[in-house]
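B., you asked whether I could sanity-check this one before it goes into the benchmark set. Here's the sequence:
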Amino acid sequence: MQNQDHRRGFFKRVKLMAAGAMGAPLALASGVPAQETRSLPSARGSLAKTPNGFVHPHRVLLWENTRKEYRELQESGQLKAAILPTGSIEQHNEHMAMVADVAIATLISQKAALDLYPHVIVAPPSPCGYAPYHMARPGTLTLRKETFLAYILDVMSCLKAHGVRTIMILNGHGGNHHPIQEALPKFRSELGINIDADSYWTGANREYTSQFMRAKQPTSHAGEFETSIYAAAFPERLRPFTMADYDHAHLNYESGFSPEIQEFLRRDGRTFKNGRIDARGENKRDRRRQEEALLARPETGEKILSKAIEFVADRVKQMIAATEAGKSWPVS
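And here's what the prediction gave me:
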């Protein structure tokens, strides 16, 4: 019972994202109504423990700071780096709220920044990403690659102009990973500062998760992995389901697409034959994810999150050290 109480306490502290004044995308990422953030709680139970004592967890979120607070942090010389979360608003099968990739990446970024407080600020997450291959599932939103990458570059340009010389792009969506990696050399050459990018699951890789996950060949999307994270950190964003309900819905993601949806799918290289997507087993894959989600447990999500937070905090700490030493990142 004591371990369960400790675990609940830890994830009450790390579930720290707040909407603030930036509107619906961040409100979705937080799960907390914006009006609830306008007065700061004074009780220690609402604060987060950092290497420099207890602070309100919003202090590491750029959008929750006033211009005075940011200015004072900048002038103090303590601000060393920023983390820019990226994600996607997309389908996560029948049971997960579509903000998953944004919410998870932002949570991990925030906790890593708190572990390095007061040296790291979290920039507003990119709520939409590159996900044309999910457009057959209604509700998914996607950006063109060039739009997505331009957004990231513009945000980093602003951070640089305001004194940040080290930036970690933390990705939470598989479709964003390769476009960001391909754009990294351009980001570095244009801005001339230390920039790195990775996906949070690099820190909680298959070798690590195989020690405790129950699926023999786990899927990354909406299966045991992501559903367990939701169960640990965002249980209110999970919906109950049964496989009987799933089968009764008679879902089909292999044919019957409108011309508009076909165009989105072609954007990602999908081809069609006689009106049917030329990719084998799309429906089978979707059902497998749904069934695998039944294996999810909060304790699995806690282990994944803890490892990912440690990974991000350690990477940013190394990047700051390189910048402070006048070295380029990655250090050769």
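One thing to flag: DSSP finds twelve helices and eight strands in the chain. Otherwise nothing jumped out at me.
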